[in-house]
Amino acid sequence: MGLFERYWSFKLLAKSRRTIGNVVLIMLVMIPLVISLVFVDSMIDGITTKYIRLAGGHIQFKADSDAVVDNPALSRTVSGFAELYTQKSNASALIKGVDASYFNDERLSQIQLTSSDWKLDGNFVIISENLRRKMNLEIGDKFALLMLSNPEQSQSASFSPVFRPLLVKLGGVYSSGYSQLDDTLVFASFDFLSEILKEEYITLEMLTDSNLPEENLKTATKVMSENEDLLSFKLWNEMNTQIYMNFVSSRQMIMIIIIVIAFIACFYAGTVVHEIVQDNFSEICTMRLLGARDIQIKRTVFLAVLAIIILGVVLGIGIGLLVSFNLSPLLKLLASSGFSGFSMYLLDFNMEIDVPVLLSMGLLVIVVSSISVLISLRNERKISPLLLLRN
After folding, report:
1. Residues 176-184, mean pLDDT to the nearest whole number
2. CATH code linked to domain 74-206
């Protein structure tokens, strides 16, 4: 592009009555796309983090129940399924036996304990606020558990379930902010639950710095090589296959919807070409009188429209990010409102930016819009200086 085209494209933009309006319209397309992308990615990452921190860890190692593994990064757990009973209500849940040290800073960052004097020893258990309300319990109340012994054997066709009735006390109440997890997870003492289940093996959970399966695989392989008592391992995406695939498919579906909307919106750029030509009819005729060729005029218009598109995309992404990061107080207010419509969603999470995806989306809008502009320019009729005299 020569100096001639750049000068006249700037002149066309400065004179066009609808330049600001076109920039604003492109911004209004980009802002909701950016907010949707950041919101969905952040929510999925938040749910994934809660499941990993509370339900299973990044990596689960299997070891004999009497094995001694000297690794502070590993937390021993046992688990089984149970029915919780009171006189007025009942619920199904996964009972997870853990030590008090299980609730380190990383895990406590994902939950809120309603009291500082919670107990997790003997037959005391910790349940979610959702279950507490459903079963009408208070701290210290007793209720019954119908425990399913050896739940791993339930995969066998010859398995005959054995239920054990237990009497437990409510030692604490937690809330993770995600009802799908809270409704099905109960914590008990490791010693208490392992004595009940009498499992041949125990599970050792490990948290890492990454949610990426390939990174966790490297860590698991290294830990296995350093501890002979560890028998096998599973990664978090293998333990929660259905949940993991739901997250993947949800993210893919949202991305497809965003791309389709972006494609449809991009064809609006073609109408901007006609508007600039109409608003700058006399300037374009002047360019022809100065000897500008048809290709130079089209380049000039293309540069003008491209500047509008890029400015709209950049401002839209910037404002979209600004709005996204200021949504947290509103989301937390909605989460605490108690409105049942929001109970199925995680609303208390940190906003995360997937920079490569965000930049790719912006680039996609610019490229598709540019193609739309080029198509419109090919269909735009050739302007003759005589038309100026005729008008």
Report:
1. 85
2. 2.40.70
